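quick q for whoever's on today - can somebody do inverse folding on this one?? i tried earlier but teh output was garbage lol. tokens:
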């Protein structure tokens, strides 16, 4: 299926195939090469800065938050029929005390632990190929953050390859493939844990702290989300 795109140079509107939408194409009018997908993302980002978009977003938030008190929010959340999403920033902005500390620890585990530990291991064994695990771990965390649909497939295929190697040669942490597999698993799972922790902790903070909830509503920092009725 063809999709329409606009040349960033001469603003000519033309069609490109879906297969070529994320590759370099040439404008039929001015022959400038560009990536339609990157231009689409760029224009979408610029659109979010427009005053009209901000006004529209604030209107949607006002409708979603209308007549929602802290008592109603707390009750509905406990009944699993209501939640929230951040309009600006991340849920971590509502954390404090021990909850913020735990979230920061989870964040350090997936961001700092791989380069530190793998660098030390590579230095100890004088094998810099082990540093490849750092990039694999970061890619796994990036995939989890951006919900890349291709990552579960790649991870499954990688697991199958690992299983074949381990069945043939035996499992050993001294194998490159084992180090790379554990790096991918670490980056993906630790990011998921950190993300789930910040969402859960932020929700509990909003439930337990009325002043925090009221300030978030007044400042349009959150949008109330109504869930489907739970199945009995």
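ok took a stab at it. sequence:
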């Amino acid at each position: 299926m063809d999709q329409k795109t606009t040349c960033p140079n001469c603003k000519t509107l033309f069609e490109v195939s879906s297969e070529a939408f994320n590759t370099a194409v040439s404008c039929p009018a001015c022959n400038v090469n560009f990536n339609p997908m990157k231009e689409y993302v760029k224009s979408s980002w610029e659109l979010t800065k427009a005053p009209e978009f901000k006004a529209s977003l604030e209107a949607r938030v006002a409708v979603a938050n209308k007549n929602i008190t802290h008592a109603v929010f707390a009750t509905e959340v406990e009944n699993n029929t209501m939640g929230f999403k951040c309009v600006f920033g991340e849920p971590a902005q509502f954390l404090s005390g021990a909850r913020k500390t735990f979230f920061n620890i989870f964040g350090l585990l997936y961001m700092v632990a791989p380069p530190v530990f793998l660098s030390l291991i590579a230095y100890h064994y004088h094998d810099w190929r082990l540093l490849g695990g750092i990039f694999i771990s970061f890619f796994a965390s990036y995939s989890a953050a951006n919900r890349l649909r291709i990552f579960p497939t790649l991870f499954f295929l990688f697991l199958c390859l690992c299983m074949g190697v381990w069945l043939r040669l035996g499992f050993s942490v001294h194998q490159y493939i084992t180090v790379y597999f554990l790096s991918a698993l670490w980056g993906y799972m630790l990011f998921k844990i950190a993300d789930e922790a910040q969402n859960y902790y932020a929700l509990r903070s909003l439930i337990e702290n009325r002043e925090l909830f009221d300030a978030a509503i007044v400042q349009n920092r959150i949008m109330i989300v109504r869930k489907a009725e739970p199945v009995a």
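fwiw The CA atoms of residues 34 and 185 lie 36 Å apart. also The mean pLDDT is 86. so keep that in mind when u check it
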